[in-house]
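Milestone M4 deliverable, item 7.
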Amino acid sequence: MRAFGSWLARYWTIFVPVIGVVVLVAFWSVELQPVAVALIAVVLAGTVLAAVQHAEVVAHRVGEPFGSLVLAVAVTIIEVALIVTLMTTGKDSATLARDTVFSAVMITMNGIVGLSLLLSATRKETTTFNAQGSGAALGTVTAMATLTMVLPTFTEATPGPEFSPGQLTFAAIASVALYAMFVFTQTFAHRDFFLPVSPKGTPLTEDSHADAPSTRTALISVGLLLVALVAVVGLAKLESTPIERAVTGIGLPQSFVGVIIALLVLLPEGIAASKAARRNRMQTSLNLALGSAIASIGLTIPAIAVASIWLPGPLHLGLGSSQIVLLMLTVVISILTIMPGQAARIKGGIHLIIFAAFIFLSIVP
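Output delivered:
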């Protein structure tokens, strides 16, 4: 039994993604009963954890900040696929993209950042990171969020919180341009800005906790990561209809579906960022959180803009007044958190309170 437990602990990340695909195929065209919904939820959770493990292997092999970029892009692919799928099959999908992307921004910038700050600062009074890299990421996500989700509320070309075709095209191009500039800065021009730093603020170029995996191991993890992501997208799609029914049955606003989608797809990021924070690598946590927010806007909005050509119904991207207030509050607090280059535990608590306010107002708008 002990040998089996050891074997399972070593190889579960290989078998769980495969099981996820098998379950996906088995239940794809079946009317789901409560037992099946519960089973799919368990397999989905296991597949997400396996995806995190494989993403960490790849990240360790390629090093920072490339590893954070790999996971951020992978998670955003899940988000885009899920949004497009639900917009083609679900009801009241005009605001689904906006609700999901805004939820992703609030979850990453408040939930993940706040939790990471608390975990990293528990060993010391403060945690240290590179203000130049994190500040560049914060500026990018602020510009993206304002151009794509705040402006539509105030433009006059079309009624309601909706861009005209020309405005949507500009917003999509601007998002891609901002994302491309950020990726170039993060990976080539100023890579040192995004490396973990020591308590004295000097970059840590190597992870001393373990040797980097071999190229063969990393390539296997890349393949299994792709399998896991496919399974996560499909299983989340299977769960989407029961989720929508549950949201309606409980009496929650339909916009809460976007919150649930964002929570599902950002679970790998949250786990990976928490692990990095516990190792006192707060910069990696910020790379994951802010990088995911940037990827969520910079990749999702252009993809949805293209998809809107054939998707039925309008595309409402403009935020409501309470959402704009929460976004602006998040930006202001994030500036105060990041610009000093170090943060105490109280900053993490402030971010988590804002995150709690976002969840509460999503339930009671």
